[in-house]
Amino acid sequence: MAGLVQGIVLVTFPAASTIFTEKSEYGLSSTQYGLMFLPQVVTAITASLLGEGLAARITMKRVYLLGLGSSTVSMCLLIASTGVKSNQSAAYPLLLVATAFLGAGFGLAVPVLNTYAAAFHPAGVDRAVLVLNALLGLGTALAPVFVAVFVGLGFWWGLPVMSVILLVVLLLFSARLPLRGEVQAPGAAGSGGSHRPRRFWFFAAFAVLYGICETMNGNWSQLDMTTRLGASATQASFALAAFWGMVTIGRILFAALGRWVPEQVTYRILPFVLVATFLLVWRLPSHAAGAGIAVFALAGLGCSALLPLTISFGEKDLAAMSAAVAGGVIAFYQLGYGIAAFGVGPLQRAGLSLSAIFGCAAVAAGAMGVLSFVVAPGRPRSARPATEQAGSPRPSGHNGPQGQ
C-alpha cells in the first residue's frame, strides 16, 4: 500500500504538467516547469544518501514514517498553491517548496520500502523487489488517470486532496506496525559512503542513465503529445497512464517469468527496447496521437524491470554495503531524473525540438544496454548460498548473502 500511494504522489506533478503550463492556470514556461523539479532532485538525493545513517539513529521505521510525512506536506503545499495560481510570484515558490518535500519523502520512504521487501523475503529477493516496484508503478499509472477524472469534474486539485487522505490513513496504520528491519552494525556497511567498492559505480552509472530515460517519458511525454502530435489533454493523460501502466504490467510480468527467464536476460534486453522507442518517438509524424500512446506504452515496458532489478542485483552483489545500496541507487536515479527534468528546457532554447531530444535519449538507453552486461553478468541463480535460498535469517536483516 505504501508503494502504491507513494507512486500516486510521485507522479502528481508530472501528471498535472498541462495544468502548470496552461496560461489560464499557472502559466509556467517549459523552463519554469522543468526547474520546478530541481528541489525535488536535490532533496531526494540528499535523503536517499543520508537515510541509512538516519535509520541507525532513529530506526528505519521512523525514517519511513518521516518520508510519508514529508510527502503529506508536499501535497498540502500543492493544494495551497491553487489559491494563488494567478499570482506566479506567490504560486511558483510554493510549488518549489512542495517539490522539495516530495523529493525528501521519496528519498526517505522508498529505499526503506525496498529494503523491507528484500529483508522480509530473503528466498525471493528479485521477485519481492519487482512486485513492490510494480505496486509503486501502479500508483504512477493511476495518477494521470485521476488527473483526467478530476479535470473532467472541474477540480484537478482533487488528486492532491485524495493523496493527503491516503497518506494520513497510511501513516496512522503504519505507526502501529513493528516494521523491524534495522541494520545491527551500520558501521560495517560503509554507511558514510566514503568506502564504496568500485563496482558500485557501475550500478550508479546505470541508475543515472535509467533516470534520464524514465523521466524523458514520464515528465515530457504529455507536452510532446499536445505540442507536436496533436493530442488533446485527455489523450496526453492516457499516454502518460499507458507509460506507467506498462511499467507496472512489465514488473509483474517479469517477476512471474523469472521462474523460466533469468533476470539477467531481461535486464540486458530492456535497454534496447528503450532505444527503439526513443527513435520511434523522434520519427513520429505530426498529429499521430494514437501512435504516440502506443509508443509510450512500449517505453513503459522497456523501463519496467530495470530499476528494481538494479537494486536487487546491487544488494546481492555488494553484500558489504547491502544496507546502503537501495538508497545509493535511488540517489543516482534521482540525479538522472534531474538531468532530464530540467535539462530539456535549456536544450529547447538552444534550438533542439522536443522530438529531437527524445531521439538523443536513445544514446543514454544504448549506453545503459552496454552497462547491463557489466551490472548483471551471466551467473546461475544457484550460485547463491543454499542458506539464502532456504530463507535462513541473515545478520543485518538485509539481503546480502549469508556469511559475507
- The unreliable regions are 183-194, 380-404
**Shape designation:** globular
Rg (CA only):
20 Å
Q: Estimate what percentage of residues fall within beta strands.
A: under 5%
> What's the number of helices?
17
Helix/strand order: HHHHHHHHHHHHHHHHH
Supply the helix-strand structural class. mainly alpha
Cα distance spanning the termini? 32 Å
Mean pLDDT comes to 84
Describe the main β-sheet briefly: none
- Helix content bin: over 70%
Topology, number of strands? 0
Please supply descriptive tags for the structure shown above.
single chain, 17 helices, mainly alpha, 404 residues
Structural description of this entry:
There is one protein chain. By secondary structure, the chain is an all-alpha fold. Helices cover 75% and strands 0% of the residues. The chain is built from 17 helices and no strands. The chain has helices at 2-10, 12-15, 17-21, 30-35, 38-58, 60-81, 88-120, 125-153, 158-174, 200-227, 233-257, 263-283, 289-303, 306-317, 322-349, 354-375, 386-389. The longest helix has 33 residues, at 88-120. 56% of the residues are buried. Mean pLDDT is 84; it is low at 183-194 and 380-404.
